Protein: Fasciclin domain-containing protein
Organism: Chryseobacterium gambrini
Amino acid sequence: MRNFFKPLLFSGVAMLCIISCDDNDDNMMTEKTTYELVSSDSNLSSLKAAIDKAGLSATLNQSGTFTLFAPTNAAFATFLQANGYASLNDVPTAALKTLLMNHVLNSEVKAAAISTGYVSTLAMGSASSTRPISMFINTNGGVKINGVSNVVATDIDANNGVIHKVDAVIGLPTIVTHATANPQFTSLVSALTRSDMPNFVGILSGTANSPFTVFAPTNTAFSSLLTEIGAANLAAIPKTTLENTLKYHVVTGANVGSNNLTNNMMVPTFQGGSFKITTTGGAKITDNNNRVSNIIVTDVQCSNGIIHAIDKVLLP
């Protein structure tokens, strides 16, 4: 993963003693597994109960290199209330297991090793049985996960990984979750939520017509579009034009990963038209107006679909 948050001399005998003592101290500090550390922390008792209910204690007790983003008791209390659960016992076990796996990475990532970007969790959503759900970490002004959960304590070392405490349970991200979490998609979100548009938030947060594949233009792509068509801002784009353009970036009923893209592949869209994928010299899209966009980020897996970022807005 990329960046994370941003002399006396002794005798030989004495130095050997110090090194030996330091090694013993390190072993003592990391003798517990991630599960054992959670179990011994009174502020993570709800997480322990959730892990036990979901049957994940053995997973977090085994040898390996995990990163666990651990919600505090207050975070679980907020989660239960927000979702109408009286207690953890009311949360369906299968759903709870997937939710918890969405807090775990299959590698040890210390605080000094994370920066803004996407990583893969251990959770598998309904949109894909082979591609794990993505997590977006934003280190601008702190560390925020999927736009909803802040890291409040870091680098609690275990002998099979590391724990970072978070102040909110990290729900399974939808297309909308990942679009709103990434500051490179603020223009796209503004377009999708314009008052005269269909309820794109509801559509892309749900499961009807899912899974979705969204080719998501970045802020720079939208700025270039406005210059290209001579519009002062997004509000100046006519309703029908904007609606058709946004729908042209969405594929319904398919979770199309980068491994599914083939040269000269024609892709049918939610708008009704289609565009062509080419893979020679990098994955590109040719829209209905023969304009070419590069796919610059691939395989942001959501619970109800997948996102690929592109550097030019497609026009139907």
